[in-house]
Structures are given as C-alpha cells and as structure tokens.
Design goal:
Length: 53
C-alpha cells in the first residue's frame, strides 16, 4: 500500500497508472477517452488522494 501511495509523488508513474486504468478499466461504451481520464483522475484523488483535485 505504501508503494501505491508513493505513486502520487512521482508524476511519471502516476501518469502511467492513469493511462493503464483508462485503457483497461470498464467504462460505458459511449464515454469519450477524455471523460474516462477525468473520471479516473477524480477517483484516484477522492479515494486515495493521488494527483491533483
């Protein structure tokens, strides 16, 4: 878990995580890649305080 939270302080690793989640998570088919990315970033911030609000 500590390693997971360390991702928040490493911009490159955080962006990799966002990209992986956008690419592999299940989203409604009608959602755009941009809205998927916004959702991923929102969940990571609200749930784990990773990234920016």
């Amino acid at each position: 878990m500590r390693g997971f939270h360390d991702i928040g302080s490493d911009d490159d690793r955080f962006e990799e995580l966002v990209h992986d989640l956008v690419a592999h998570a299940t989203f409604p088919q009608q959602s755009s890649p941009r809205s998927r990315e916004r959702l991923v970033r929102h969940v990571l911030f609200e749930s784990y305080r990773l990234g920016q609000p």
